[in-house]
Design brief:
This protein is of the alpha/beta class and 432 residues long. The protein has 2 domains: 199 residues, Rossmann fold (3-Layer(aba) Sandwich), CATH 3.40.50.720; 211 residues, 3-Layer(aba) Sandwich (Rossmann fold). The protein is built from 15 helices and 13 strands. The strands form 2 sheets. It has an 8-stranded mixed sheet with strand order 3-2-1-4-5-6-7-8, sandwiched between helices. A 5-stranded parallel sheet has the order 10-9-11-12-13. Helix 3 links the parallel strand 2 and strand 3. Helix 11 packs across helix 12. The longest helix is centred in the middle third of the chain and has 31 residues. The chain starts with a helix and ends with a strand.
Length: 432
């Protein structure tokens, strides 16, 4: 099934199923070299993309220029394509159990239109074995075709970093895999046409799936170690950032920092590995411990602020706190799985009156997702300010600015350690 030459001459098309923060930049990158069909179940988002607008607000209008792409919400249009890429989200539910419904639904959509000679490549983050054990049977059942004889599959984990304008999709080394040697070679050729950084051919689909899921699990564990150190050093009245600065003078020290771990990768992917591991009868200790620590940080920070408010003679239930930043990371609009939202809820549980502001977040999305409101105007009577996200606009702020928007005995909580420790006895400054 030598498909690459026909994709090159555009006699066959590529489809990308799921046009979120992963799928859209991928579809546009392919559309500069190939003929592409971009599919998403959200018709409103499709209308925006047809107008050259990125619903995730990551890509400028010029990113759509010169692209051979058809945006559609009609699954029947996928019949025109022969190389299908599935890039839908893989979240967890409220019980931290992997929610495969988007990837299963996308698989059913592709299975219904799958043809002889087609390729299906998954980019969604899953546990090892998901592509072959959960998705493949659906493709075969709905299409009536058989893997190998009739169609090929592969897995190529996404490595998109939202908000990163330097490490764009073309500049990040791409891992690819296939169900056999021919599939691996063809998939490598297709991705190699757009990836400048190069291609790494994994030995199997399961290896590629496992490589992806441990990338973020590793970061999760390293950050959880920093968070645990921050809690220990706080009890010792030692500044964690000062400790890390000193430790980083050793050549092989890995410089991670404490903080809130949210978003749809680091805070989610470990649960996929946990889920698969426990199904196989092994209860992971280290991974689960790291997740518990990171998930517990909003409660720790809220409790610590309450202690500081009381220390400064303030009754928490009569205080007003400003939280600056609620997106899951700096300089992006994405609020999914934001741990800042969890922090806001923790503060509200202490009856603290909380204001939230963010230059990137959508008020409508915030209200829909978390039932929280953004304030239109920042007042000047806050008892404490928490800078939770290091948006560029916040990095330019000064200590006098914060003091001007706070009342007597002000408290500044700098979760991202953006600002130098102030030499100001009137201001109580705290950071992780």
């Amino acid at each position: 099934m030598n498909i690459y030459p026909q994709l090159q001459d555009k006699s066959k098309k590529i489809s990308v199923v799921g046009l979120g923060y992963v799928g859209l930049p991928l579809a546009l990158a392919f559309a500069r070299r190939f003929s592409v069909i971009g599919f998403d179940i959200n018709a409103q988002r499709i209308d925006m993309m047809r107008r050259g607008e990125d619903p995730s607000r990551e890509l400028p209008a010029e990113a759509f220029a010169g692209c051979d792409i058809q945006f559609t919400a009609n699954p029947e249009d996928l019949r025109q394509a022969h190389f299908h890429i599935v890039a839908v989200p893989t979240p967890v539910d409220e019980h931290k159990v992997p929610d495969l419904s988007p990837v299963i639904s996308a698989t059913e959509t592709v299975g219904r239109i799958l043809k002889q000679g087609d390729y299906v490549v998954y980019e969604s983050t899953v546990y090892p074995g998901c592509t072959e054990e959960d998705c493949l049977p659906i493709l075969e059942e709905l299409s009536g075709l058989r893997l190998g004889a009739d169609f090929k599959i592969g897995y190529s984990p996404e490595r998109i970093n939202p908000g990163d304008k330097e490490h764009t999709i073309e500049k990040i080394l791409k891992v690819v895999s296939g169900n056999d040697a021919e599939a691996l070679e063809q998939i490598a050729l297709v991705y190699g046409a757009i990836i400048e950084a190069g291609i790494f051919k994994a030995s199997s689909i399961k290896v590629a799936e496992a490589a992806k899921v441990i990338e973020n699990t590793q970061r999760d564990l390293n950050i959880s170690f920093m968070n645990e150190l921050a809690m220990i050093f706080d009890r010792m009245d030692i500044d964690t950032q000062d400790v890390l600065e000193a430790a980083a003078t050793k050549w092989n020290f890995l410089r991670f920092t404490p903080g809130l771990v949210g978003g749809h990768c680091i805070g989610v992917d470990p649960y996929y590995l946990l889920h698969k591991s426990m199904k196989l009868g092994y209860n992971p200790q280290v991974i689960l411990s790291g997740r518990r620590i990171n998930d517990g940080m909003p409660a720790f920070i809220a409790k610590r602020l309450v202690q500081m408010l009381i220390q400064r003679g303030k009754n928490p239930s009569q205080t007003k706190v400003l939280v600056m930043g609620i997106t899951f990371k700096e300089n992006v609009a994405d609020i999914r799985n934001s741990k800042v939202a969890d922090l806001v809820r923790e503060l509200m549980d202490y009856s603290i009156h909380v204001h939230v502001t963010d230059p990137y977040a959508s008020p409508n999305e915030l209200a829909h997702e978390y039932k929280l409101m953004l304030v239109d105007n920042i007042s000047d009577d806050y008892d404490a300010v928490i800078v939770a996200v290091s948006h560029d606009a916040y990095t330019k702020l000064t200590i006098p600015y914060f003091k001007n928007i706070m009342t007597k005995n002000p408290i500044l909580v700098d979760l991202k350690a953006i600002y130098p420790k102030p030499n100001d006895n009137g201001l109580l400054y705290w950071r992780l």
